[in-house]
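Worked example 3 (structure in, sequence out).
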């Protein structure tokens, strides 16, 4: 009977060690996913900011989802970043935020300078009255 108790305790000790190792492995995965997300977010923010600035300056409609970079959100991904899905999620979120910030800033600047709308049909910037 005593032998059974020792074996049971030993089995429980091994199982808890395996669980701890598994938990540590999950934490490593989540850390890599978070890092990939951050890399993607930073790259997406920069790309979205550039795109939003152009659209806002041209008075184009607010529409970032038509951009190829946004639709193919693994632009700039490297395997060393971690999870491709984490990178793509971060890229899209960063792209959206960068686009919104630049688009709104450009629109405000145009209004501040008295330009309600710009005409780019001939590559010239003219206020429309």
């Amino acid at each position: 009977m005593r032998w059974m108790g020792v074996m049971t305790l030993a089995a429980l000790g091994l199982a808890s060690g395996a669980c701890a190792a598994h938990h540590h492995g999950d934490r490593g995965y989540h850390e890599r996913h978070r890092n990939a997300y951050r890399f993607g977010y930073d790259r997406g923010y920069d790309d979205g900011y550039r795109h939003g600035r152009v659209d806002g300056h041209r008075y184009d409609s607010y529409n970032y989802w038509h951009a190829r970079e946004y639709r193919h959100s693994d632009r700039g991904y490297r395997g060393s970043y971690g999870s491709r899905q984490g990178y793509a999620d971060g890229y899209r979120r960063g792209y959206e935020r960068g686009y919104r910030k630049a688009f709104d800033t450009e629109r405000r600047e145009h209004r501040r300078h008295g330009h309600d709308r710009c005409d780019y049909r001939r590559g010239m910037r003219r206020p429309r009255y």
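Notes: The CA atoms of residues 21 and 27 lie 10 Å apart. Residues 14-24, 118-129 have pLDDT under 50 and may be disordered.
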